[in-house]
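> example.struct
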């Protein structure tokens, strides 16, 4: 796993997704070196970098040109990217042109989550996996409902990682990146 502190960051781009969250996403994805992965809403590229080390190919999408630039810088910093394609476009538009998806991670949808999930479903290989990360309650409900409508059996996990900070009088636990991880496998 790559260390959170090693990522190049920007005030204008969300991320990287915290290391513990990335670890759970990797576990839930059951990624193999033959898998083709799509990362919608890649931000600074935390998830992209982790999958680039483990998957056959990774296609990372973000509508924000600065996010694509940050992801590119992080891939370069970690010596990754030979198997990564970066696309600066909205998620729905970009996914239309992608085939042969084994794993799709949706972390940012620009209010097009249902449309993106429908498109991914139509491109997902048998036994393909979808993972949606969500911080808003509305997004969690929308993702679960859409996945059920598409005949998936979604599982939802609410994750709240806390790290300790040693103070003079004790240890203070600080929450980092509270998030839901919604996962589903194509039937």
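> example.seq
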């Amino acid at each position: 796993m790559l260390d959170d502190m090693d990522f190049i960051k920007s005030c204008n781009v969300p991320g990287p997704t915290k290391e513990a969250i990335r670890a759970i996403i990797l576990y839930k994805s059951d990624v193999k070196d033959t898998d083709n992965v799509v990362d919608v809403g890649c931000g600074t590229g935390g998830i992209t970098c982790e999958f680039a080390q483990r998957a056959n190919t990774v296609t990372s999408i973000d509508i924000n040109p600065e996010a694509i630039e940050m992801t590119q810088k992080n891939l370069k910093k970690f010596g990754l990217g030979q198997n990564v394609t970066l696309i600066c476009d909205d998620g729905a538009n970009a996914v239309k042109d992608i085939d042969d998806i084994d794993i799709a991670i949706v972390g940012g949808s620009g209010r097009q989550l249902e449309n993106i999930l429908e498109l991914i479903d139509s491109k997902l290989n048998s036994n393909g996996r979808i993972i949606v990360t969500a911080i808003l309650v509305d997004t969690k409900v929308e993702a679960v409902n859409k996945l059920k409508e598409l005949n998936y059996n979604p599982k939802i996990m609410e994750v709240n990682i806390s790290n300790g900070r040693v103070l003079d009088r004790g240890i203070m636990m600080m929450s980092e990146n509270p998030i839901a991880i919604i996962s589903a496998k194509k039937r």
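> remarks
The radius of gyration is 16 Å.
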